[in-house]
Amino acid sequence: MYNRKVSTESEMTAPGNARKFIKKTATYLTSASQLPENTNCLACSDDGAYLSLGHSGGFSVWSASSLSREAEWLQDRLEITSIHMTCTSQTAYLLGTIDDMGVARVFVYNLEGVYSFSVINMLDDISKRSVCLYFELSKGGEHGAIIMRCNSDIWLEIYYFPVQDWLRELKDPKISANMKWSSAVRVNRVYPATANTTEVPTILSHFLVLDETSEPPRHCTPHFLLRCGHSCEKDKVKPGSPLAVCFWWNGSYNLLYLTLSKTAKAKQDPERPPSVLWPNAAEIICSAVSRCTRFIALGLSNDLLCVWDRLSGSPLSISGVSTDSAFLRLHFVDYWPACADNTQTLIAGEIHLVTLCESGAIHVLSTGRGIATSTVQLSPRPKDSADQPTFTASVPFLQGLSLVVCRNGKMFLQDVVNRATVCVLSLPAHHQLATPCNPIYSLNVNQRVLFIRADQEPIPESPWQQQTNVVTGEDACNLYLQQRALSMDERHKAITQTWKRLRCATTTT
Predict the structure, then answer these.
(1) Bridge partner residues of 159 (DSSP)
(2) 449 Cβ neighbours under 8 A, 6+ residues apart
(3) N or C: which end of the chain has fewer CB within 10 A?
(4) What is the pLDDT of residue 17?
(5) DSSP 128
(6) Can you state the percent helix, strand and coil of the chain, rounding each to 5?
(7) Can you give the pLDDT at residue 337?
(8) Would strands 420-426 and 25-27 be described as parallel, antiparallel, or unpaired?
(9) Sheet containing 39-44: which strands, arranged edge to edge?
(10) How far apart are CA 485 and CA 483, in angstroms?
(11) Among candidates 172, 146, 151, 178, which has minimal Cα distance to 161?
């Protein structure tokens, strides 16, 4: 695991500096060799003080500044595969985890240690157990969006977590391992079929597209939505806490909207259906929400990018993108000034939206209220397949910059506005980026640090690690066949010895 202190905003965004940094290489300053080797996931707290790592045997909480282990929760024969962390008070943090068996858990970490508060889907009968596919905590931790699956059924669950009650219970001097904490409350459950029976406003009912697909949905993408404008001030929601959640099922044409609640419905009452927020003329492939959650972007299967303004209740932009492949992912280029008030981000200035296509081409859509929408190609489809971008993300503490990760492990910062490579990020010698297609990383906004997992290069190296030039599928196949042929004698001896042991065991019995 390595971390890199990113250059200051004035260095990176001053006028005319883009060209100056094009060929500059940035190296990582700190090697955190004491971190767990089998780290599957990591997350930073909202305030940037702590780093949580999910790994074999549980998870651990580390100081983000000193990289010292502060606390841990361990359990034998368990792998934490997903972790999320958010501040609940100045000294307490809520963590949501998923393990390799699909069990979702909720923990609280404070200066005293880690406490397990809730297990969402633990059942003794494994044949009836629902498997958690996705778990996201809202900012402040009062709500959680959880995607469950059981056999061929899939659904979305919304939970309310009594965070304030838990914090009061942690002050009890008689805390023990068998402490009975306040219960988490499931406030809603939504199945894909409910999309066709939602409460649709009259003006939208004429445009509603019924999702009639041959295959059942396999996944759901949710986004928590904050208060947006004065129209929501009547809702009793704390600043920074979510007011609702929007979501869509893969294969669906409709973006759905569900208001959050803190109380569960009576058992005899039906689950509250979502309302259709925005029906579309084509299938939704990917989505993104701006940091203030005022703007929602949708990438459609017909090469349309749609940006919707929640405050005005109308689309801000609907633009076609000339691509040679489908959209892969979207992200807003959000900028978070260090001294800015987190609640004051609802001014509709110029908006930049980055889209990565399956071919590796990257496009930028620029729009805004009263601004003509433009779509430009930031980088074309790479000629070398090893240079194909597989992941992009906004760097919110540097204005206009986006982090790009390529298939061969290369990483660089790209100026979205000026269309220039600003900085190349290099790993130390004899190390390579772990899982470049889905890097294990976290951006610490307050400390302006990128944490990312890197592993020592394996021996022998694979073809795409031995050279930076393109390796075709035919070359990789030939190399594999050569290695198989060279190891044939050893494999034959191993098979012979296995059969001898089996014969001996049969004779003995």
Answers:
(1) 144, 186
(2) 3, 4, 5, 6, 64, 443
(3) C
(4) 40
(5) G
(6) 15, 40, 45
(7) 66
(8) parallel
(9) 39-44, 50-63, 69-87, 93-99, 104-110, 113-119
(10) 5
(11) 146
Average pLDDT over residues 176-199: 80
Q: How many CB atoms lie within 10 A of CB 52?
A: 28
**Per-residue b or e along 170-187, where b marks 16 or more CB atoms closer than 10 Å to that residue's CB:** beeeeeeeeeebeebebb
Straight-line distance from the first to the last Cα atom of the chain, in angstroms, rounded to the nearest whole number: 51
Return the percentage of the chain with pLDDT > 90, whole number.
47
Report pLDDT for 481: 72
Query: Cβ distance 401 to 395 under 8 Å?
Result: yes
Task: Note if the bond before 460 is cis, omega within 30 degrees.
Answer: yes
Looking at residue 133, its amino acid is L
Q: Considering just the CA atoms, what is the radius of gyration of the chain in Å?
A: 25
Q: What type of residue is 202?
A: T
| pLDDT (tens digit per residue) in 402-428 | 999 999 999 999 999 888 999 899 888
* Token reading at 233: 């001030």
Which element (helix H / strand E) includes 96? strand 93-99
Question: Within 13 Å, how many C-alpha atoms sit on residue 160's CB side?
Answer: 16
Amino acid at residue number 376: V
Residues with Cβ within 8 Å of 296's Cβ and at least 6 positions away in sequence, in order, are 223, 246, 255, 278, 287, 288, 289, 290, 307, 308, 310
Angstrom distance (rounded) from CA 434 to CA 436: 6
Backbone angles phi, psi at 308, to 5 degrees: -110, 135
Question: What average pLDDT does range 376-392 have in this prediction?
Answer: 92
Residues 6+ apart with CB under 8 A from 261: 158, 160, 187, 188, 272
Q: Is the pLDDT of residue 509 over 60?
A: no
Q: What is the pLDDT of residue 508?
A: 54
Residue with tokens 């094009």, as numbered in its chain: 22
Query: Which token pair is 406?
Result: 């390529």
Least confident of 15-29, 308-322, 432-446: 15-29
Interval 114-150: pLDDT, tens:
999 999 997 666 667 799 999 999 999 999 999 999 9
Cβ–Cβ under 8 Å, residues 249 and 192: yes
User: Quick one: which of 464, 497, 275, 272 has its CA closest to 386?
Assistant: 464
**H or E segment to which residue 18 belongs:** helix 17-20
Of 308, 300, 361, 358, nearest to 332 by C-alpha is 308
Q: Is the pLDDT of residue 70 over 90?
A: yes
Instruction: Write down the number of H helices and E strands in the chain.
Output: 7, 33
pLDDT of 209 higher than 70: no
Crossing angle of helices 473-486 and 488-508, rounded to 10°: 50
The residue among 204, 191, 415, 157 whose CA lies nearest residue 308 is: 204
Cα 268 to the chain's mean position, in Å? 36
